[in-house]
Structures are given as structure tokens and as C-alpha cells.
Amino acid sequence: MNQVDIHPVLSQSAIITNSTADYLELKPVESGCHSCSGGCGIAHLSTLFGHKEKVLRLTNPGGYQEGERVEILLNEARFMHSTLTQYLLPLINMMLFVATFDLLYSRPMLNIMAAVIGLYLGVRLAAYWVKRIQGRFSANDLCIRNLSCASIDNMQPVKVIQT
User: Fold this and answer.
1) Is the pTM of this model over 0.85?
2) How far from the centroid of its chain's Cα atoms is residue 134's Cα?
3) Which of 15, 40, 60, 114 is the most core-located residue (most Cβ within 10 A)?
């Protein structure tokens, strides 16, 4: 098996719900806000919007069976890059639109429209950018590891097919 160095990492436990020769479908084991008793109120708030079950489809590196518990390991730097892109790009775009319209027209209603248009276009640009880089994960960015095997050497690189 491949020895993969993927430090520092973010990890998430998951269960394989479907296994074929080409791909694995994984259901993340509840963590974070959905696993607590709801003491902070976020769990109650999330019930208003419903909870859609997440399924992650990854390439199958081989040797995994349906029902096995695995750990998904993600390079923290790649995750932070994607997160900053998704949050900062729309805000920066919105501020640039507002500043430009304010300099050109100095009308409050146009500034509000510029903010909405800039934010919308920034969200679209961020979505395009993240989808574009999603397929570019290197072997050291995303791995899975079988939790039933105690060895750290059983990490195998995978690619995201669909979320």
C-alpha cells in the first residue's frame, strides 16, 4: 500500500454505504453540531432548515467493502484555501462593486444594487473557482484509511467524484 504523508490534516470518520470497482460512497459519521445534545441552540436552529444526509463519492483505491468504517483525511492547507476562497472572494467582490459605483455615481440606491450584484457575482465566481480546483487534489491532499486496521501505513490517496 502507499505510504502517504498528509500532515497537518483534518479527519472525519465515515461508513462505506456502497462499494464498486470504480468508486466508494461514504456516509460521514455524525460529528460537530449534529452530534451534540444541542446545548448552544445551533442544533435547534438547524432543524428549521432540515438536515440533508451527506454522501461523498470517492474513487476506490481497492480493498474496501460495504459497511466498513474508514477515516477521510484532508490536507488542512487545501481546506483553508477553499474555505477562504468561498467566503472572502464574494465579500471582496461586493466591496469593489460598491466602491466603484460610489466613485462613479455617489447614489445610495445604486450602491445597494452594486452590493447585491457584486455579492451575487462573487458567489458565482467562488463556486466556479472551487469546482475548478476540486479535481486538482494531489495524492497528498485527500486520503482514506481503514479504521479496523491499526497500522498508520494503510492510508490510500483518493479523488472526489461527487459530493
Assistant:
1) no
2) 9
3) 114
Q: Which parts of the chain have pLDDT scores under 70?
A: 1-8, 30-52, 134-140, 148-157, 159-163
Half-sphere exposure of 129 (CA within 13 A, CB side): 16
Domain coverage including residue 63: 9-162
Give the N- to C-terminal CA distance of the chain in Å, as an integer: 26
pLDDT of residue 1: 43
Are the C-beta atoms of residues 76 and 142 closer than 8 Å to each other?
no
CA distances from 104 to 108, 111, 156, 159 (A): 12, 10, 54, 46
What nine digits make up the cell of 39?
Answer: 446545548
Residue 2 is assigned to a structural domain of this protein: no
Q: What Å distances lie between residue 115 and 24, 57, 79, CA to CA?
A: 42, 36, 27
What contacts 110, CB < 8 A, 6 or more positions away? Answer: 101
